[in-house]
Amino acid sequence: MDILEVIAVELPCNACGDRYEVTLKQILLSQQMLHDGCPIPAHYTTECPPLHYADLADRELIEGLNRTWLELEARVGRVGARLLLRGGQKKS
Length: 92
Fold this sequence. Notes:
Elements: H1 3-6, E1 8-12, E2 19-23, H2 24-35, H3 49-54, H4 59-77
Antiparallel strand pairs: 1-2
């Protein structure tokens, strides 16, 4: 399981007030786009998803979480078991 596709940050939309999700994988991709030289000026933070998403979480923390998940998957896999994500927070 790609844990970075499963865990998301829920954000409010400034335009409509509804909420939407951005996965940790999308955040990492946004950070990579900026690192690779995305040409969007910094004052477009709310209009450019890479700029807006990149600051949602620290890259090292996301990568650490991914490494930990992969290590756990490998360890439980050696005994024929698998990791599961159960439940979750109810949306209010």
